[in-house]
Amino acid sequence: ALRTVFVSEQGEPLQVVSKPQPWVLAVVDLSGEASPRERLKECLRAEAVRGFDLACGPLFRAQLYRLAPDTHVLLLAMHHIIYDGWSLGILYRELSAIYGAFACGEAPTLPVLRVQYRDFARWQRGWLQGEVLESQLSYWRERLGGAPLVLELPTDRERPPVESHRGAFHAFTLPRELVDRLQELSRREGATLFMALASGFALLLARYSGQRDLLIGTPVANRNRAEIEPLIGFFVNTLVLRADLSGEPSARAFLGRMREACMDAYAHQDLPFERLVEELHPARDLSRNAVFQVMFALQNAPMEALQLRGLKLEPVEMEVGSAQFDLSLYTWETPEGLAARFSYAADLFDGSTIARLAAHWRLLLEAMVATPDRPIDELPLLTVAERRQVLLEWNATARDYGQGKRLHGLVEAQAARTPEAVALEFEGRELTYAQLNGRANQLARVLRRKGVGPDALVGVLAERSFEMVVALLAVLKAGGAYVPLDPSYPVERLGHMLEDARAPLVLAQPHLASA
Hints:
alpha/beta
């Protein structure tokens, strides 16, 4: 796979494997730079966005950066078409064996491979057809029939018409105690840690989107034969999990639903995802991924730490700055707990939003293990600080406007302070406080001449308009009280209201006067 390129022959891709050739590891000396580590970051970012030529290759690159005589950084860059996460563990293991042999002055030896990736590809094409293919397609057609192919998560910004794939990430950790309790719950329910974590993630997405039926993508190693376990290559497939939150299931019952969904998907994992997309014929939208827009993964492929004889190694954290989906949650177990990492589309979300999302996911998982028989809609989502903010701080809106101040008096005071400030906007027109107060005073004088005063009721028949606001203020200024008359009411209803109120006077817009 590491010596493979792909050429186009009559419009079809063709794998071409070159013969082994001498390999020269490029060394970039940064030790003379004023700030070697800052310069290293620039080099790594540039390499991360550097493309691959599928037809010419190579699809596997390596560079060694020298920061000091005893400090180096090794960069390995591979196109996803020739490797997957499982392959990385194999690469580390073989690199360690070869380096260790050279360090001891010995000739390296590796186990002879029984098959190569092209053998698997040839077998898969021959096997996945006829009844086998139809069985796989039939399951997925039925499973995803009528499913919503769009997850409408609330975003911080409007979705751009075309995905830019600009991304960022947020890393966090779930404590060991919580992970142990999730595993205990999973064992009791005949499920796995992956199923419990995915259930909590589905609950989170449902709370944020309001959808009770949603799709989540998840990668599967797809190495279900012993011969292909030691191969470097792209075997991974993508499965679509359909989360059904209908009714009012308990957390325990919903975990059972997700267990069944996962087991069924695993049993039908051989259909390549791209073939499934062809079958579903989703409406193409350049602004989002087809079929699903959110990914969840628990990284449990065999992954030994890279160990090179005589060297002390540690990974270098770097942000690639890209995102394949709207939202992806990658997790892996560590002695300290569960390491987790949200990758997200920077065009849609702010970092603070994703940090809050991570906190809410943890809360839901804690509630699941604490009260598994509680309905999922009752599981708490807000932190203590957020509950205090929503229930107390945002509701502390009491204001002292002073005793005895009435609405029309407040408008008069504002007109005296800021006469040219805009008081009303309607259909492209504006009315200042001075204009509003002046018109209301004019009408109030007319009403006073017509006998309006204390205890007098005045009907106001008006649509939403400047005239309606002027009329309401004028009645108050004249000392009366208004009876709002909705123009959409039947004439009989308006007549009954006027008769019951015994209003001697009605203010109406001219085009409504006949009512």
